[in-house]
Amino acid sequence: MIEPAIALYGSTFQSVMKTLDELLRESGARYVMLLDRKGFVLAHKEALWAPRPPALDSLATLIAGNAAATQALAKMLGEQRFQEIVHQGEQNGLYIEEIGEVALLTILFDNTAPLGRVKLMAKKASETLEQLTREAIVAPNRMGIDTEYRDGANALLDELFGS
Amino acid sequence: MSTINFAAREINFKIVYYGPGMSGKTTNLKWVFGQIPETRRGDMVSLATEDERTLFFDFLPVDLGEVKGFKTRFHLYTVPGQVFYNASRKLILRGVDGIVFVADSAPNRLRANAESFRNLRENLAEYGLTMDEVPIVLQANKRDLPDALPVEMVQMVIDPDKKYSMFEAVAATGIGVFETLKAVSRLVLSRVATAG
């Protein structure tokens, strides 16, 4: 209960969505997604023409795991960090950029979007996103979850798992 | 720490199943996956070797439902239990909200339980956390083994002070699986509610 959380809402969330929208348009990518280091999706955007994306939860979890493993590898090799992660297949590619200490920017693109352009636009967007996510960090004790919420959630636990 | 997404009106919690190799962590998740309605869970992701040993993690998102206008979701993870996968295990603990420690009731796994519990303490310490700061419940799994040790003995080697709740289970047939998950979820919710 020590790690800070990110709470995106209001104008900060709108600014994040605007940045993702621009990134999607300028890079020609299929999907862009902002997630925290634990693998929770914070915001995402899809191109209108793109096919339905895979399950975002699963995608975000694997990307966060992948990024965490890559950074652990970097440290073992004496590097502070590896700046970027790229995967390229025959049809699709995945580009991951770190956003400060707490978030990850992920871009899924197909072979109509050149990797160079994806990288360039991602780096441009990452500066804005780093500032925005920094503003959205809240201390764990200011999350605003109260006992009324807890009691409601406990009732749902009984319903799902039996009382 | 839990993640609140005000825009999507979601609150997410991360629960990790920890314990020695082959103690039944993945079996717990598979039971949950198989029993709760499809509308209340996502796909289960397993990063396992060909012989079904967990290599990196298993993952299962469970939707609790809506509370005070917020969709509440538990993300369940397992760690690889085998000793030499510690680097991966450590990564999965990042941002954990609650832990289920799955102990093996077999007599020849007593030491493995103790070593895994010590390893959990060490890995939490790497994130600056102590065992007192994270909600933890224990599960003595494989109670159907003919030579299963008494549950008190299983608890004795990992938790001699009996600080944590212990649940008896046979994860393969679902006995004790939901009870354990419910208990850790309740602890997690209590913890965040009192923190607020």
TrEMBL record, chain A:
GO terms for molecular function: guanyl-nucleotide exchange factor activity; molecular adaptor activity. GO terms for biological process: positive regulation of TOR signaling. Gene3D superfamilies: Dynein light chain 2a, cytoplasmic. Residues 16-109 form the Roadblock/LAMTOR2 domain. Signal peptide: none annotated. Pfam families: Robl_LC7 (PF03259). Transmembrane segments: none annotated. PANTHER family: LATE ENDOSOMAL/LYSOSOMAL MP1 INTERACTING PROTEIN. This is Roadblock/LC7 domain protein. It comes from Calidithermus roseus.
Automatic annotation (TrEMBL), chain B:
GO terms for molecular function: GTP binding; GTPase activity. Keywords: GTP-binding, Nucleotide-binding. InterPro entries: Gliding_Motility_GTPase (IPR052705), P-loop_NTPase (IPR027417), Small_GTPase_ARF/SAR (IPR006689). It holds the Pfam family Arf. Transmembrane segments: none annotated. This is Mutual gliding-motility protein MglA. The lineage of its organism: Bacteria, Thermotogati, Deinococcota, Deinococci, Thermales. The gene is mglA_3.
